[in-house]
Write a structure and sequence with these properties.
Length: about 325
């Protein structure tokens, strides 16, 4: 009891702030690695360290305890190497937040957004109809220059006809991704990183894996047309919505492109887009489609898309993602 009173007597506002700050840092780190491969890696490291410390303390192993104590500093040096993808993603998210704070007053909805969404959607519908594959990446706040350098530079107005010509099977530019910057086609035949996620639908091919991969590392939007099935899919923030038709794809693209990095702002279309939040879960048929697999309905975003989808011809935004 006296020790507890002594501890409370030492608490000052600055000490409380110090404790809260450290707690928030650890909480942020845990939230950053949640649901990633680093999650299991951290668990494994903690289990090994705790088991080693318990064995060394219980059996009083002097040399083993010395080795364990001198190994921990080396692990601290290895952390940036082991968790490089997670740290990079955290810094990119921090940078996007800074851009939003700085540019919030200057943000405006481009007048060409709806036309851009309609042209891309019409191009995807034509590609699916003719049995061509397609991979279209739309750049937002995160630059895609490193991927554009792997392809061929193009400076052309976005149009369904031009996209159709690029992805024509006889075209030398059809194998790879098209990167769109603003309302212009910036580059074609670009190479994209493939996702390292193993829990994917077996039906997903290289194009879909590339679409998920580029949206995991950036805030870009990626539209995929399957050459085998003609299915149209949209990837955003590492999540995939499949089996969209032309009208539904145009609606989703228009909603996403009218917001900076997926953050909701007050927009038109009967005020419904003001409910749009970061596309952490992109629904298909009223279900959140994560990495090509269907999950249970999640949150107001799913209900918003379901409500909008029911108002469209055909009833729903997209068919159920096959398991």
């Amino acid at each position: 009891m006296q020790q507890a009173l002594w501890l409370f007597s030492k608490l000052t506002p600055l000490a409380v702030f110090d404790i809260v700050l450290v707690t928030l840092i650890f909480y942020g780190l845990l939230m950053l690695i949640r649901g990633t491969q680093a999650d299991q890696l951290v668990r494994g490291i903690l289990i090994v360290l705790l088991a080693s410390a318990a064995v060394g303390y219980f059996f009083q192993l002097t040399i083993f305890n010395w080795l364990l104590q001198n190994t921990i500093p080396a692990l601290l040096i290895a952390i940036p190497v082991i968790f490089q993808p997670e740290l990079r993603r955290a810094l990119e998210q921090l940078g996007r937040t800074g851009n939003i704070i700085i540019d919030r007053r200057n943000f405006h909805v481009p007048t060409s957004v709806e036309r851009l969404a309609e042209e891309i959607a019409r191009a995807c519908a034509l590609l699916a109809e003719r049995g061509y594959g397609g991979l279209i990446v739309i750049e937002r706040s995160t630059g895609l220059e490193e991927y554009a350098q792997t392809g061929t530079r193009i400076d052309g107005q976005v149009s369904a006809d031009l996209l159709l010509q690029i992805f024509y099977k006889g075209s030398p530019l059809h194998d790879g991704a098209v990167i769109i910057r603003g309302d212009r086609i910036f580059a074609a035949r670009c190479l994209l990183p493939l996702t390292e996620t193993s829990d994917l639908d077996p039906e997903l091919g290289t194009r879909h894996r590339a679409a998920i991969g580029v949206t995991e590392n950036t805030d870009a939007i990626c539209v995929v047309v399957s050459e085998e099935t003609g299915a149209i899919s949209l990837a955003n923030h590492g999540h995939l919505a499949r089996h969209l038709n032309e009208q539904k794809l145009a609606l989703v693209l228009s909603a996403l492109l009218q917001t900076p990095t997926g953050i909701a702002v007050s927009t038109r279309r009967n005020g419904a887009l003001s409910k749009l939040k970061a596309m952490a879960k992109l629904p298909a048929n009223g279900a959140a489609a994560t990495n090509g697999r269907a999950k249970s309905p999640a949150g107001p975003l799913t209900r918003w898309f379901t409500k909008v989808g029911k108002s469209l011809p055909g009833g729903r935004l997209g068919r159920q993602v096959p398991r």
